[in-house]
Amino acid sequence: MSMPDTLPFIALAGPTASGKTAGALALAAVIGRRMPVEIVSVDSALVYRDMDIGTAKPTPQERACAPHHLIDIRDPLQAYSAAEFVQDATRLIQDIRARGALPLLVGGTMLYFKALLDGIDDMPAADPAVRARLEAQAAAQGWPALHAELAHVDPVTAARLAPGDSQRIQRALEVWHVSGRPLSSFHTTKSGAASASPMSAGALFSLEPENRAWLHERIAQRFDAMLDAGFVDEVRLLRARGDLHPDLPSMRCVGYRQAWEELDLQALQPAGTPLNRAALRERGVAATRQLAKRQITWLRSMPRRQPIACDQPNAVADLVQAVLQRLDGRTP
Question: Can you give the pTM of this predicted structure?
Answer without folding.
Answer: 0.81
